[in-house]
Each structure stands twice: as C-alpha cells, then as structure tokens.
Amino acid sequence: MQSTIILYTKENCGLCEEAKGLLESLQLQYPFQMEERDIYTNEEWLQEYQLMIPVVEIDGIQFYGEQLQPEVLQEALSK
C-alpha cells in the first residue's frame, strides 16, 4: 500500500520548492502519493504552520526545518 505524504506549503516559498523537489526525488526510491496543502486555503493550517513551513507529514509524524534532510526522510519512508 502506498503512503500519502503531506507537504504543507504556500505560494512563493523557496524552501517549500526545495522540500517538494526532495520529496519528488525520494519518490523514485519509495513509492508514495504526495498531497500539497497550501496553508492559506485553511485557517487551521495557517494558524498551525505559518511559521514552520514547509512541513512534511509522513504517517502522522511531522518534519520541518533542519529535519528536512534526505537521510531523515529516507529513514521515515523506509519504516
């Protein structure tokens, strides 16, 4: 069964584009669906993630900031 990875993002966000690129490269090794969520389309997301984006959620665990490294995400995806 394929996992769904959620990427919390917003428009004109360079770090978000980097995170998306990283996830797209990981899709070659780990099959998953990626769902992008623009935090400005949902008030709860905006309040929760405004200062943290990009945020990647894998199986309910959220990664952001320094955690958005290939090794960290690979480990989470391999579980």
UniProtKB/TrEMBL annotation:
It comes from the Bacteria. Pfam families: Glrx-like. It comes from Oceanobacillus kapialis. This is Glutaredoxin family protein.
